[in-house]
Design brief:
Blueprint (H helix, E strand, L loop, with lengths): L6 E4 L4 E5 L16 E7 L9 E4 L1 E3 L4 E6 L1 H4 L5 E10 L5 E13 L7
Parallel strand pairs: 1-8
Antiparallel strand pairs: 2-6, 3-4, 3-7, 5-6, 7-8
């Protein structure tokens, strides 16, 4: 099951994104240590290289996957509207789109990390 969720964040800041995955029938997806949940940001779908790519860690206490976007991940990105999505790759080679292409907006910040 997939859904859209736009993200907007000031350039050069931190953001923690937590994602809980559900099966089509609404039950919680059973985590496997071999799962790879990937978050990717590109300017548009035709761009070959990621601007940001993160692999999630699994938070057993909260039963969710967590991506940490650090200040250096966006510090050099031009202010713009990018696209991101999140996919789940299983050990048996299956690939599921958890969040379909949505907006990832890098906005201006007045203060900055020193």
């Amino acid at each position: 099951m997939s859904y859209k969720n736009n993200i907007s964040m000031p350039r050069g800041t931190s953001l923690s994104v937590s994602i809980k995955i559900y099966n089509f029938d609404g039950t919680s997806y059973e985590h496997s240590d071999t799962d790879v949940v990937r978050f990717g940001v590109k300017l548009d779908k035709n761009e070959s290289n990621y601007r940001i790519v993160k692999v999630a860690t699994y938070d057993t206490e909260n039963d969710c996957y967590v991506f940490e976007i650090n200040p250096e991940d966006t510090a050099e990105l031009p202010f713009d509207r990018y696209k991101y999505d999140v996919g789940l790759q299983t050990v048996d080679g299956r690939y599921y789109m958890i969040i379909t292409a949505a907006d990832f907006n890098v906005t201006t910040a007045i203060t900055a990390k020193e």
